[in-house]
User: Fold this.
Amino acid sequence: MLGEYRIVGRRASEIAESVERGVGSGELAPGQALPPMRELAVVLGVNPNTVAAAYRLLRDRGVIETAGRKGSRVRHRPAGTARGSLRVDAPPGVRDLGKGNPDPALLPPLGDALAAAVRHDGGRAGLYAEAPVDPEFARLARAALDADGVPQGPVAAVSGSLDGVERVLAAHLKPGDSVAVEDPGWGGMLDLVPAMGLRVVPVAIDDEGPLPGEVGRALRGGARALVVTDRAQNPTGAALTPVRAGELRAVLSGHPGVLLIEDDHSSGLLDVPLQPLAGGTERWAFVRSVAKAYGPDLRVAALTGDALTMDRVTGRQMLGPGWVSRLLQRTVVELWTSGALDERAVARAYSGRRDALVAALAERGVGARGRSGMNVWVPVPDETGAVARLMHAGWAVAPGARFRVASEQGVRITVSPLSMADVGPLADAVAAAVGPMSAVSYG
Assistant:
């Protein structure tokens, strides 16, 4: 069953470590079936309960998956294999549209804000045992959330969207629980969930967000949590509409015990209004990052949620990093209050490039998705071939495998590096690489 690879060990931890070594070396390939527990116990001369404990450890770590009578096998993408490794590096002379970065020219300069943050309180150094959240950061974040209709809740500072999502999941879920996530969806999220020992339940989406029927199916099937990107969904650009948000709230109202997590990672560069879902479940969280609008290296996000969730998250945070740098929080305050970012102008810049590319592709018979944000998703029949042909034509794009679980193939194009003059040549290259598509597929 395992070819020449031999699992060894006498204790559960040793057996699990042996399997992980095989996966890491490639000797146990993704999808490789593992021996039945009793069979392996006989080979190793140990109690079957020891092997069962080892397999449980491996499941919790996201290394293997178990499908009832079909037995256990190596995950097709083990938790230690990040989807980010499925990228295409652009060689010299090739335009890189695959990394998903914002346009540096649209980011505000940080020097004045950092200097002002240092001067705050007379330049006094921050010390231990001080409040973990800058009061002005909390006040401004809460005011913005209020304006967008996000329910009341305490505000914490976390190190970006994914950090916030991980902390909320860890506050309520245990290994083996299921999490409903968008498909196609953010590669970081699709890596994080199994890395925490949780199970991914893919939910199909269209341009207006998760399909209500798919969400209902996932929740009826036992998903303990649902993660939704309210707008600028990565990679498709989907954004909740008022009608879709109402439909999803209706679904969630039938599952009040489900943990709802909403991600607003591109706030500050969008011309699509927020349609929050929170309020219909007992446990919820909403995270808003500044990375896309103010710079990826400014690792700050505002997190709010129900009182119990926030108490658990902040309590656990104090036992680890303690707090997100108050200097960085104060820098964000200075950026928010100084007018350093013209949000409307930035939103127009991204939407202009994105809409122009989607329209140019449509003129060439290629369906594409991109309702908001900085990315365009192009369904393709063969993403490996499309990526290779685009590379040959001088354009590096992100392969859809980074973002898919069960949805159809595609490629992601980030419009940040584009000028309007680039749109036509890029659309020509995409049309030649993927061929005409009669319609956009929604998975």
In short: The two ends are 34 Å apart (CA to CA).
